[in-house]
Amino acid sequence: MGEAESYKTIDQPAVAEYKDRGSKFLAFAYPILKADDFKKWLHFLKKEHPKAAHHCFAYRIGTDGYTFRVSDDGEPAGSAGKPILGQIDSKEVTNISIIVVRYFGGSLLGVPGLINAYKTVTNFVLQLTPIVKKQIEESYIIHFDYTQINEVMVVLKQYNCTILTQEMQLFCNITTGIPKNRITEVMYRFKELHNVEIKKLV
To answer: Is the CATH number 3.30.70.1150 carried by domain 136-200?
Structure first.
């Protein structure tokens, strides 16, 4: 089996709610590309829900399986973050963060009750947001003369590359994500264009 060429993720936020014995659990799912994106959402939710008892979360980034984080935010160890991540992994999605905001309702749910609540509300939110398939990409920077903008754009569009950043002046720089399985073809096309430099971002 070769290396994976695509991964599953979400491309729009979603929210779901679950109630148990007076406690209210709100799950917020956000597409993210880096830990900083997640931090912004967590900060935003803490401001939006200052009276909530807990802001538990899990996120997973990338396709190597190593970049993830969980937090129980004061709930009993293993009762919140892990069940959230478990649901993310059961759907095999990545580049996603799920933050569950809990309002305490007066009754203790116990560890099994908490695990069930965090698991259920995460499952709900994952059912509400469409899961999309995206190409695994590698980032390259392209440097070229402004007069060649059209030729460069044609290649990027044809091979379904993602434009990450662009600086358009007399000389232009575009940072692009090239689908892994199309890199050879894209490099070949750019070599055919004069005065276009392309190099891999480390």
So the answer is: yes
